[in-house]
Write a structure and sequence with these properties.
By secondary structure, the chain is mostly helical. The protein has six helices and two strands, in the order ααββαααα. It has a two-stranded antiparallel sheet.
Length: 149
């Protein structure tokens, strides 16, 4: 299939498809048509690669990380142990992001509570929440964040 059909099937823009191909994330074949700029021909393998890209991005991986991962896979260096290593690192990253989100949620809740309470008492300060998060993570990563009121 040509780029326009591939873009339609995957929901990507043609520019995104071209960008992914330049990064090596997609590896379309070239046809003899098109003169100096041969047509890119995409297969079901490219559709599968696009799905992997989409999943990896949703897990928080950068395109650079995805490209490196794909390169390892193509070279046959992607053992089960290496996959576990990659996924474990991504889990640590996602857990850190989840903790950051919990801090932000706690701050927004406190701010809403303060605003609804006719702004009684000291205004919640995001810096205090961020400091608590840093101090708390250094002490114990397994406990939930305490709520500030």
């Amino acid at each position: 299939m040509l780029i326009s059909e591939f873009a339609r099937v995957t929901g990507l823009t043609r520019d995104t498809v071209r960008f992914y191909a330049r990064l090596g994330l997609l590896q379309p074949q070239t046809s003899g048509k098109g003169g100096r700029h041969p047509y890119s021909v995409f297969t079901d393998k490219d559709i599968q690669a696009e799905e992997v890209i989409r999943i990896a991005q949703s897990l928080g991986m950068s395109l650079k990380e995805i490209a490196a991962f794909n390169q390892e896979r193509r070279k046959g260096h992607l053992t089960s142990e290496r996959r576990v290593e990659i996924m474990s690192a991504q889990l640590v990253s996602l857990e850190a992001k989840a903790t950051e989100l919990e801090v932000m949620i706690s701050y927004v809740r406190a701010k809403i509570h303060w605003l609804k309470g006719d702004q009684q008492g000291p205004e919640p300060d995001f810096e205090n929440y961020a400091r608590l998060n840093t101090r708390f993570n250094a002490d114990d990563n397994d406990k939930p964040l305490p709520t500030l009121s």
